[in-house]
Amino acid sequence: MEGQNVEELLAKAERDEAEKLQRITVHKELELEFDLGNLLASDRNPPTELRRAGPSPEAELQALARDNTQLLINQLWQLPTERVEEALVARLPEPTTRLPREKPVPRPRPLTRWQQFARLKGIRPKKKTNLVWDEVSGQWRRRWGYQRARDDTKEWLIEVPGGADPLEDQFAKRIQAKKERVAKNELNRLRNLARAHKMQLPSTAGMHPTGHQSKEELGRAMQVAKVSTASVGRFQERLPKEKAPRGSGKKRKFQPLFGDFAAEKKSQLELLRVMNSKKPQLDVTRATNKQMREEDQEEAAKRRKMSQKGKRKGGRQGAGGQRKGGPPSQGGKRKGGLGGKVNSGPPRLGGKRKGGQHQRGKRRK
Amino acid sequence: MRPLTEEETRVMFEKIAKYIGENLQLLVDRPDGTYCFRLHNDRVYYVSEKILKLAANISGDKLVSLGTCFGKFTKTHKFRLHITALDYLAPYAKYKVWIKPGAEQSFLYGNHVLKSGLGRITENTCQYQGVVVYSMADVPLMAHNFLY
C-alpha cells in the first residue's frame, strides 16, 4: 500500500512537472512580434480556434491571452537584469513602435511683425558665432545673455558726452534705457502672441495708438489709466465736472431662479406679517447708533465746556473711561422700554441719559 | 428672469396691499399650488411653479411673458400695477365701488365718476383708499386710488 502510495505520489509529481513545463512552453505557428520597450506582443496567427468557438468564446480567449502573456514573460526573462533595492529588475530596451500623436497637429502661427518685415525685404538670418572675443576681460564671451561681451551697463567709466547735462547720471541713464528696451521687447512678444492666438492683450483692450477710438473706448481707457497707479486709483482726483463711472462696483448677486420655494414663501409671509403688524418696528441697529451718536455729541460738548472753564481731570477721565460700559446697557434697557413709542425718543433718551450719568458718577466712586 | 429681491418684494407688496390688504397672503400661500413672483425685463410675473419650470427653457431675450404680469418696476424702482393683475386682485379686494351703467362707459374712457354715478360702495372706505371698481353686473373694471 505504502509503496503504491509513494509511487503514485512520484508519478503525480512527475506529471505536475511536465505540465508546468508544458505551460511554460507555448507552441505557435507564427512567432510573435515583440516590442519589449512598450511591453507589447503582437500575435499574427490566424484565430481559427476563436472562429470555431461559437457565440461566447470566453474560455478560448482566456487560453489565448494566457499563452501570449506567457511568451511575453519568457522574452522578458531573457533580458539583462539588475538588482534595485532587493528586487530583480529587467532593463527594457528602447521601444520600437511609434505611438500616435496625443494632441492634434498645431496650426501654423501667423508671422510676427519682424518675420513679415524680413520676408518683405528679403532679409535672411545671418549665421553668427555664439562666442565673441572680449578685449576688456580678455576671454571669449557670449554674444548676448549672462556675462556677455559688450555690456554697456557694466562699464566702470563712462565719459560724459559733449552736449549732455554734466549733473546727469550716465550709468542710471544706460540702465534705464536697457529697461525700456526690455519692456518694449516684452510688449512686442505679447503682441505677437496675442496675434497668434487671436486674443486681445488685456492691458490694451480698447486702447489704440492712433485716434479712431469711440467714446466708450476712450472712457474705458481713461478708467484703466486712472486705476493704474500704485494705490489702484484710490487717491486720484476727478476733474471738476467729471461724473463717477457707472458700473464699476461689484456685480449684484440674486437668488437662483428655482430656489427653495418653501423658503421663499416663508420669507414673503414674514415680510407680510411685519408689514401688517401696524406697529412701527424698532430697528435696533439704527436706534443704538443714534443713541451713541447723541452721546458722543454730549461728551464733546461737555469736554469743550470743561476745557473752557479750566482743567477738571476727574470729569474728563470719568466720562472717557465709563463710556464703553454705557451704550450697550442703555440700548438694552431702551429696547424693552420703548416698544412702540419711537417718536417720543429724544426727550425720553435725554431723561435716561441723565440717569445714566448719575449712575456713572456713583460707579466712579 | 430672476426672483425679486427683498427691497423689490417689499415695494410690490406695499402697493398691492393698498388694494387687498392682508388677503395678499392668500396670493403668496395658495392651497392649490406653488405660485411665485418672478422679475423679467423689469416686469413682475405671477406664475405657477410648473409654468416657471417650462419657461426656464426659453432664453431670456426670446422670452416675452409668462404667467400673469402684475406690473412693472420703473426706472426709479417704483412699482406700477397693471390692469392684468385685476383678475387676482378683484376676488380679494377689501374696498369695492360699484358704478351705475350710465357712468361706466364714461369712467372707462377716463373721466371722473360723479357722485350720481356711484352705485354702491363698501362701508368705512377712507379717503385715498385703494379700491376695486366694479360695474353693476359685478364685473371688475379697474383698481383705482381715488380722491373724494
From TrEMBL, chain A:
It is found in: Nucleus. Keywords: Nucleus, Ribosome biogenesis. Residues 235-245 have a biased composition (Basic and acidic residues). One of its GO terms (cellular component) is nucleolus. GO terms for biological process: endonucleolytic cleavage in ITS1 to separate SSU-rRNA from 5.8S rRNA and LSU-rRNA from tricistronic rRNA transcript (SSU-rRNA, 5.8S rRNA, LSU-rRNA); ribosomal large subunit biogenesis. The keyword Nucleus applies. Residues 229-255, 272-365 are annotated as: Disordered. Residues 302-315, 350-365 have a biased composition (Basic residues). Signal peptide: none annotated. Belongs to the RRS1 family. Involved in ribosomal large subunit assembly. PANTHER family: RIBOSOME BIOGENESIS REGULATORY PROTEIN, RIBOSOME BIOGENESIS REGULATORY PROTEIN HOMOLOG. This is Ribosome biogenesis regulatory protein. The gene is RRS1.
UniProtKB/TrEMBL annotation, chain B:
Gene3D superfamilies: 3.10.450.220, PUA domain (2.30.130.10). Coiled coil: none annotated. GO terms for cellular component: nucleus. Signal peptide: none annotated. Residues 1-83 form the 60S ribosome subunit biogenesis protein NIP7 pre-PUA domain. GO terms for biological process: ribosome assembly. Pfam families: pre-PUA_NIP7 (PF17833), UPF0113 (PF03657). Keywords: RNA-binding. The keyword RNA-binding applies. The keyword Phosphoprotein does not apply. SUPFAM superfamilies: Pre-PUA domain, PUA domain-like. One of its GO terms (molecular function) is RNA binding. Residues 96-141 form the UPF0113 domain. This is 60S ribosome subunit biogenesis protein NIP7 homolog isoform X3. The lineage of its organism: Eukaryota, Metazoa, Chordata, Craniata, Vertebrata.
